[in-house]
Design brief:
Length: 176
């Protein structure tokens, strides 16, 4: 068994990724920024609790030190576009991800794709591609990222979208 050429992995990922907006191999999305903004405004809620001072300092300060990191202006634009709901997930002091929730319409577009219904890894990649704003979700990223990065991002994003197991949801119920 020989070694795998990263170029081959990247080309394979490019074929599988499909549209960066809707996540489908054949694009069917009709981007409507106003509708998207309205839906995201409706999704506003309390922020996800901030990560503990990961790696000795806040993730926001670590983000600013990384090459090609989004500027404060870019983050403000994302907040405006996505209803003020933008988060950062630090997996290490050099491996941070800026992401947002998916709305119901985006979720339905992804799960309607038959390719994703048959392949959980492709579905995870499509959801992460849609939700992660930075770094860019490129074929190189998919091919060369650590094995657990996409599944971890997927799980965090799903929790943020309120996909809780029944027991966790029941534990949040309070009597009025």
């Amino acid at each position: 068994m020989g070694t795998v050429d990263p170029k081959d992995l990247i080309e394979e990922a490019q074929r599988e990724l499909g549209c960066p907006k809707c996540g489908q191999t054949v694009c069917t999305c009709e981007a409507n920024p106003e509708l998207e903004k309205q839906q995201n405004e409706e999704m506003k809620e309390e922020p996800v609790p901030a990560a503990a001072a990961a790696f000795g300092r806040p993730a926001k300060s670590i983000l600013k030190t990384l090459p090609n990191a989004p500027s404060d202006e870019q983050i403000a634009l994302w907040k405006e576009r996505y209803g003020g709901v933008i988060y950062i997930l630090p997996l290490s002091d050099k491996d941070l991800y800026v992401w947002r929730y998916l709305n119901r319409q985006e979720w339905q577009q992804i799960v309607a794709n038959e390719d994703y219904q048959q392949n959980e890894m492709k579905m995870q990649e499509a959801i992460v591609r849609r939700a992660v704003l930075w770094p860019a979700f490129t074929p190189e990223f998919v091919a060369l990222s650590r094995a657990g990065t996409i599944p971890t991002l997927f799980n965090v994003i799903m929790q943020g979208c309120h996909f809780y197991d029944t027991m966790s949801a029941l534990n949040m119920v309070e009597e009025l």
